Amino acid sequence: MSIVRSLVFVYNADGGILNGLKDLWVKTLRPQDYDCQLCAVTYGPLGMKREWRDFVRQLGPEVRFIHRDELRAEYGLDGVPLPAAFERHSDGTLQQWLSAAEMRSFATLNDLMRAVEQRLTD
Question: In this predicted model, what pLDDT tens digit does every residue of 57-90 receive, in sequence order?
């Protein structure tokens, strides 16, 4: 069993204030059209859910959240199905840790947290 030291969760959304407002608008008015299940289960109308924030802080591995445009800019990855989570290795490379299909299957925050805990203990 390898020890996970660093995780990178990638939203299926671009960063920035205007993109954030657009995402909030779509998530609120047309949730069925929203493309980021990671955002949908971890964020409420006022920001990141406290339960998720507290969960991430106690995990053990360093956890970072980035947007798809940052994934492209920082790691040169483009066209990767998102949202997803990656393990970041000491050499800076990323390896998929939770796939987009897995992320899309989480209907609730509890589903996501259980999957993260399970993956860390495997």
Answer: 999 889 999 999 999 999 988 889 999 999 999 8
Which residues lie below 8 Å from residue 117, measured CB to CB, with a gap of 6+? none
Strand partners, 88: 94
6-121 fold: Glutaredoxin (3.40.30)
Sheet holding 62-67, edge to edge: 62-67, 6-11, 84-88, 94-98
Rounded CA gap, 51 and 5, in Å?
22
Quote helix, strand, coil % in the chain, to nearest 5.
45, 20, 30
Calculate Rg over the CA atoms of the chain: 14
